[in-house]
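For concreteness, we quote verbatim a single protein encoded this way:
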Amino acid sequence: MYYNMSMKTLGSILLFSLFFRSDISALERSVSFDQISDLTALPEKARAVPAPVIGETADETPGFCVFNGPSGSPLADAAAFKSVVGDGDAIYAGETHDQKKDHNAQLETLKALGEARGEKIVVGFEMLNLTLQPILDEYAAGTISEEEFLIKADWKKEWGFDFDLYKPLFDFVREHKLAALALNLPRKVVSKIARVGLDGLSPEEKQYLPARVEITQNEAYIAYLKESYDNHGKAHDPILGGLKKGMDEFTFEHYLEAMCAWNEAMGARLADFMNSNPGYAGMVVAGSGHIIYNAGIPASVASRTAGLRPVSFYPADAAACPAALPAEDSDLADYVWYINHSTTTAGVLK
């Protein structure tokens, strides 16, 4: 086995830990995004985008070891990879946040999607909460500089991971004039649900959520979240061990509600865009904990759209490419991309 449950769970721990901070300001404004009419349809546009080359990034290349999850068949080459991505309408590209190789794999995926769909692409970013959409629009359109974007979006506080990890993805969006979506919930909403549950939210806070929030019934995903929950506050957990001190205790039921609300909100954002803009392809850039088992964002989008062809990629840690897909990995995603995570080139900003 090339990685264990604790490695998979680490992704969930990392992404969830970012939402437990005491310095979050009051909710900026009322937002409702569950209605299709809330998103303006984009004009019809298309133009050629340079073809991708697998592993063309200058350093920290992800390698090319990709298996079809359900069938276990390996993708033979770049042409097969591009065919898979190009045939998809909703692409879910997972990541371990501090792993540059994962982000380079996301970039290769976006390049393949760009070759197939031209400018008719929207890229959704977990890294930005939905109140930052106007700032993301400015940056994607090239009307503000990278420096202005990082200041206005308060990237260091909002996300915390080195922007250089994500810069090539944003550069591609800007260069090819793609649409971009800020997918995330404000941290305050996620952390409050974890403490008091959905019923404990104020009317103002509920406006950040879609009208419908389903609690997952996926048993594998629930078990995955339960392990993440059980790891909170343990001595060997350098992230959550300290964060839980001085914070209200939360039950697993509320933790589950928080994760599901989080997934549902991000899925609804993409679904609303896709419903308003027929013919577009969407790509989600998010932590693997939101994509694993197709139970998070992919399930949310599927429940709100019809006829979209989803393709999910789970980046699994492996020292070497396995000769065959391990049986226990077959349900991780539509495709499992084995990447050596031994090198960390950037991480959480201090």
